[in-house]
TrEMBL record:
Ranges in coiled-coil conformation: none
Residues in the signal sequence: none
Keywords: Carbohydrate metabolism, Lyase, Schiff base
Organism: Diaphorobacter ruginosibacter
MF annotations from Gene Ontology: 2-dehydro-3-deoxy-phosphogluconate aldolase activity
Protein name: 2-dehydro-3-deoxy-phosphogluconate aldolase
Pathway this chain belongs to: Carbohydrate acid metabolism; 2-dehydro-3-deoxy-D-gluconate degradation; D-glyceraldehyde 3-phosphate and pyruvate from 2-dehydro-3-deoxy-D-gluconate: step 2/2
Catalysis: reaction(s): 2-dehydro-3-deoxy-6-phospho-D-gluconate = D-glyceraldehyde 3-phosphate + pyruvate
Length: 214
């Protein structure tokens, strides 16, 4: 049986959590293997396509070295479906008590999305100390995270949304940022072309991000 994860475990595993959109279940396993080969194990498969849950299930079943997670969790039903598919962590674009409670009920570690101080406070009251800052760039980016370091000194963030190889290191340099989320590790064109070697290389490149802020 797999060890139970915490949200901090998920955030601390690598500098980047890939935000993955898959339309074809046949891409799920080779894509996951490509990311694992590059050192990325925490895989956020977003529930944005009809095939997403089946893709999570395939990864959980066939790529044991990976940790399949579900993104775009927007309801209690999403949380249950994600767990049933084999997801071991969840990420939501916003925060609601219903989603938080549903994830807690099924012991699914959740990174709730927050974009304002009020949302951080609501998530904090519900017991969360690790959160997704989304959409990071549009919601204030690095200046906002710096401003939050004082009042939210005990909260750690995963900025997602507008984060790219060109600014990821700047986000990671902040003391309240543990990792970032980004879609650049799994470009749609690379998936369409079955260019798994490129995805492995992009994953490997994230190691340099860790070194640059160490």
């Amino acid at each position: 049986m797999a060890l139970e994860l915490t949200a901090l475990d998920v955030m601390s595993d690598a500098p980047v959590i890939p935000v993955i959109v898959l339309d074809d279940i046949n891409d799920a396993v080779p894509m996951a293997k490509a990311l694992v080969a590059g050192g990325i194990r925490m895989l956020e498969v977003t529930l944005r396509t009809p095939q997403a849950l089946a893709c999570i299930e395939a990864i959980a079943r066939e790529v044991p070295e990976a940790v399949a997670g579900a993104g775009t969790i927007r309801s209690a039903a999403d949380a249950k479906a994600a767990v049933d598919a084999g997801a071991r962590f969840a990420v939501s674009p916003g925060f609601t008590d219903a989603v938080a409670q549903a994830c807690q009920d099924v012991k699914l570690p959740l990174l709730p999305g927050v974009a304002t101080g009020s949302e951080v406070m609501m998530a904090h009251e519900a017991g969360f100390r690790q959160m997704k800052f989304f959409p990071a760039l549009q919601a204030g980016g690095i200046p906002m995270l710096k401003a939050w370091q004082g009042p939210f000194f005990d909260v750690q963030f995963c900025p997602t949304g507008g984060v790219s190889p060109s600014n990821a290191a700047d986000f990671l340099a902040l003391k309240n940022v543990v990792c970032v989320g980004g879609s650049w590790l799994v470009p749609a064109e690379a998936v369409a072309q079955k260019n798994w070697a490129l995805i492995t290389q992009l994953a490997r490149d994230t190691a340099a991000l860790r070194k640059s802020v160490a």
